[in-house]
Amino acid sequence: MSHSHDGAVLELHDVGVRYGDREALRNVTFSVRAGELIGVIGPNGAGKSTLFKAICGLVNHSGEVDVNGVHCHDRVDRMDVAYIPQRSEADLLFPITVGELVMAGRRRFRSWHQRTTAADRAAAIEALAAVNLSGYEARSLSELSGGQLQRAYIARALTQEASVVLLDEALSGVDQPTTIELFDLFATLSKSGTTFLFATHDLALARHRFDRLIAVNGTIQGDGSPEQVLAPAVLDSTFGSGASSSQGGG
């Protein structure tokens, strides 16, 4: 597989998304290196979810998305990217077990008619151990707590061997101890080369948990260190006038 310049695992150039007459995103350009843990901030409706769906190929977009140096504007199957949506979007009524969810990540490695292999099962066991869910294979997703559910989705991303994991407000409703535990997991995985983009509107979390922040509202409003992106001028352009005084806590 070819690798893009500057060792970027993910590159976006002039990406835009329209929903009918409405322009949801425009002129989005940035690149991400392997192992980065990046916070994506912005108000509700700013385009954070749309950005993630464009990266995954879940919505039509203009511009270019390259993953591991492969231009994938025309590819629907972007298995190098794992998308973990908001909890409310997950259909918990669907009768699927943790083991089935995690094993679904292995589909990219075999054709539809092939049975799961010993290697697939070993990968699933290893991924569940990495997220502290060993022995949960037979549990239904509906039985899990919020934090356990997010860990199960992360295990699926690990079995998928995704280079980039996109978490869309993934810790909404998850308690503080579990949040800390999950960020310790993200830090460990990022050291081994997995890249994380984490959409959040929690600016205290953004300030303390990421080395790099990208501020989005229709387009990129800021991209840099927390000190740069949480500066009053950037917050005002991202969240609206006066946001720096009301939102800038933490």
TrEMBL record:
Top-level taxonomy: unclassified sequences, metagenomes, ecological metagenomes
Source organism of the structure: freshwater metagenome
Keywords: ATP-binding, Nucleotide-binding, Transport
Residues in ABC transporter domain copies: 10-242
An MF annotation (GO) of this entry: ATP hydrolysis activity
UniProt protein name: Unannotated protein
SUPFAM superfamilies on file: P-loop containing nucleoside triphosphate hydrolases (SSF52540)
A Pfam family of this chain: ABC_tran
